[in-house]
What does this fold into?
Amino acid sequence: MYKGFSEENNWTESLQQNEALLRELFKNDDTIIYRHFENQFNSDLKFAAIFSSGIVNNEIINENIILPIVANNIRLTDKVKLIDVLKNQIIISNDITKTRELDNIIQAILNGNTVLLHDGASEALIINSKDWPTRVISEPENEKGSLGPREGFTESLLINLAMVKRKLKTHELKFKFRVLGSRSQTKICICYIEGLANEAILAELETRLDKIHLDGILDANYIVEFIKDAPLSLFKTVGNTERPDVVAGKLLEGRIALILDGTPVAITLPYLFVEYFQTNDDYYNSFFIASITRIIRLFSFILTISAPAVFLALTAFHQEIIPEPLLLSISLSRQRVPFPTIIEALILGLVFESMREAGVRASSNIGTSLSIVGALILGQAAVDAHFFSAPMLIIVGFTVVAGLMFPKLSGASMILRLILLFFAALMGIYGYIFALSGLFIHLFQIRSFGVPYMSPLNSLNFQDLKDTIIRAPWWYMEYRPKFIGALNRIRQSNGDRKLEKKLR
Amino acid sequence: MRKNYAKFLFLPLIMIFLISGCWNYREIEGLAIVAGIAVDRGIHHKYLATMEIIGFKPGQESEIESKLVSGEGDSILEAIRNSYNISGQMGYFNHTRALIISQDVAKMGILPITDLLFRSPLIRVSLAILISKEKTAGEVLAARSLNQPIKSFQICEAFAVQQKALSKTAEIKVFEAVNAMGGEGTDLFLPTVGVISNQGQPTMELSGMAVFQQDKLVGLLDGEESKYVLFIRNKVQEGILLENMDREANATLISFKILKNQTWIKPVLAKGKPGVKIAVKTTVDIWELDSPLNYDSEQDRKMLKSQAEKELQANILRIVRKVQQNYGTDIFGFGSQFRSQMPELWKEIKPEWRDYFTQLKVAVKAEVEIQKSGMAIKSLKVED
It folds into this structure.
């Protein structure tokens, strides 16, 4: 509610007074246009169309609002009020509402609708005339796939919803709008499929959303940090994606999506650990290839967080388990290196991370010079100058490359790498295992909207593991995920295909 | 059922905690990695320990080199520690591969040395023990090695070649030596290493074995004799068997390549006296045949076979006699065969086993199967 003005406050039947009120509210905002016009047959009928230029469609205002009112001979009767005549007979619009609440009027103007006032009426008409420039639908840069749909979300909520709707043409697909952010008034939409999505999770989401009091929401992460479980965890307990096909896939598994206006990033929940390693490509590719790449991804995750720590533990604590040729070559390359191995690992990690960050921040034109600086100057010269040892350079370089395989996990894996390195530097393999156990305890204790984060990896039942480390063939995934799709577990028939039988 | 399965999955996790090793941070380049140790009699003290340390030549292209450092002391540990005064570095023994003992020290007994090796948590029990054929053990480490800058590593490589091509000596690891010394009815033998001149330079050479009574050295066997010891111990994998067809002329020499060999030892009781029957079955190929023999003819083949068997039998018997008469120590492990196959008799003869051993009747039956004659049937002819 805007301070100083309430619905009973100053809203009268006088056009002049009402306009003055709005002019007071939108003081110093020159984008608001106040257009006065009269009916050509009866100049006593005075009107004002108020809208915000730039976010309205001028054609609609000219052709469908002003032209009919000005050109039509409006016959007034006592029975019907002029405003209803306008609404029902004159103005040509698919979305028109009558209101006398100031809040609605202000929001309508700010949202690109046109507010029509006429002298002698205490009510105003809100006519849909929204139109603003939007980005073209394109493939998201950060979530590229080699196969499958290429479209990605844009910043416009309705276009995004349209993309999801086109994939799931069922009346059970529900879109619930709500507005968040006292100043940004951002529209968000809760999408779910009725009968699949867990009602308890939905209710929990709504209560969490109810508690948010922010003044502005510019991106999905503003909400994510409010609603996620384990708010201090490194891991995401709420997922995000820029792809409508991913959202549709998650909805079909019984998950819930939150789509926000103004950002191409949609939120999906509940979000489990295995989803870091499931990519949209997995489902579009042959299940053999998908399974192998998934195993590689999982393996790379373990490598990217533990390679420097294990290397440090072996070379600084457990030299006895390194085979002699390797021991000698590592020892040889470390001769005359001034830093202890741990400092070397930390500095190199910092160098590589800063190069990665520079690659993200810098304009794309200097990408080549960045790689030359990185590869030649920092790599070759540093080893030649005995500043760093080559094996450590290889290890750290490899961890960074392996970390690029899952961009959603890159921040977490960088911090985990540091933690494991720290423990390995304290106590060798023992410390490493200690920290790793802590990591596993953490992962197994957190939940996402009531669903254990590591499920279904905490199960020893093969049926639950069909879409985790491997991606089973589509005809073999007859059930939905256990916790999330519990309402309606049977997803599809196996199409007469069974693992036991020979394929026809 | 499923719960039990889960328990087993946790076992390796728990074990990781128990086997995770030392806790102290040591930079890898600061380690003085000891590759091998040579133990000699000292001049002022009881022992002189020479250690081969892996060093790094400074320079743009650094290289590995072998550095020797020695110290004296009244115990081996003291001798090793005293050498730190010279090198200024603590030795790192986890990667030590070879221990060479001089004959002088071996004659005094190697038990203190094996005790140290076995007791130390740092030294591997798979370390190879050798006896130096030269006057001191240190000079073996000082000799040149050909394909490895680190001589102790070269020794280990040479053992692998021995097993594949020569079978003239065999690697004995610390735990095997301890088992042989402490086991019932078996005595210790160790491989010997010497220095010979190669291209005019002293180079290490691996051949032959040293015979022990309890933990004391009593004699050396040369490479050829060692081979027949290994035949009896069933340790021959591949090697060469030479056969002189005509002993006087010494002209027709045949060399067989041993493909595989199996030896059975059977203890027997003949006329109240213990004896041993040795059966050897060897499969060979002809690799050199310097005689007019025709492999195609069955008669010649039979003759070749019987000659080879006779010679193998004679050679084995000769080495058994030599060890029985000269050393009286059961390096063949005959006693252990009595123990496992005739336990009742073994209990009886065990206290006087050494006497029994020297009197033991040994019968050898060798079977040589000539499998192939290579690419040729007859030997090449030279026309006048």
In short: DSSP finds twelve helices and 13 strands in chain B. The longest strand of chain B covers residues 253-270.
